[in-house]
Specification:
CATH architecture: 3-Layer(aba) Sandwich
Radius of gyration: 15 Å
Number of helices: 5
Helix content: 10-25%
Shape: globular
CATH topology: Rossmann fold
Length: about 200
């Protein structure tokens, strides 16, 4: 069965996420069709959902004005998997620490925007990620810090003692940009039960 992956395309690395989820699907013998989502009405047809980075206040505003926000929440509440990265994590969180961001509340964390520094402070680091059998090359660009993690939220990876990847039910969220590397295992971890298994099925299927 072909899976439909929706990439929220109001900002961020849309094509990079689309390529990564296709590679992750191929690694698990699953065909993935990608839809770029800029208006309401498509999310409900998607099996998988990706929320790229960008500027969190602008993303939040656009999701609300276009009527996409409530569709993303319904998708997660239905148990369908979501991957939210960098600013996508901020918008998906229960608390962004910024009143300008209207949070979706689909991942129970409190975040601090740009906590890892400005654009010039960007860096790449090998991360030990729960569920992966070797370090993942994580790219941090103006990355948010996960300050607090809810009781039901699992920490998947830390950097310098700070959580940088978490899972809350069907939602995986990262401070970093997994799409900016040829390694698609993080997308596999988000959308398939075992990123290293030969055969797997999406968490929400």
């Amino acid at each position: 069965m072909t899976l439909k992956a929706g990439v929220i395309a109001v900002q961020g690395d849309v094509s990079e996420h689309a390529d990564a989820v296709r590679r992750a699907g191929a690694a698990h013998d699953r065909e993935v069709e990608v839809a770029e989502i800029r208006t309401a009405g498509t999310v409900s047809d998607c099996d998988l959902l990706l929320m790229p980075g960008g500027e969190s206040t602008a993303i939040s505003r656009l999701l609300q004005s276009e009527g996409i926000a409530e569709e993303i929440v319904a998708h997660a509440q239905a148990g369908k998997p979501v991957l939210a990265t960098c600013a996508g994590l901020i918008v998906a969180a229960t608390d962004a620490g910024d009143d300008r961001v209207e949070n979706l509340g689909i991942v129970d964390v409190t975040v601090e925007r740009n906590a890892f520094g400005r654009q010039k402070d960007s860096f790449e680091a090998p991360l030990d990620v729960a569920g992966l059998d070797s370090p993942f090359p994580a790219v941090f660009i103006r990355a948010p810090l996960i300050e607090e993690v809810g009781e039901g939220t699992e920490v998947l990876a830390e950097w310098d003692g700070r959580p940088v990847a978490v899972r809350d039910g069907p939602v995986v969220a990262t401070s970093f940009h997994p799409e900016l590397t040829p390694d698609s295992r993080l997308h596999g971890l988000a959308f398939f039960e075992d990123a290293d298994a030969e055969e797997s099925i999406p968490v929400g299927e």
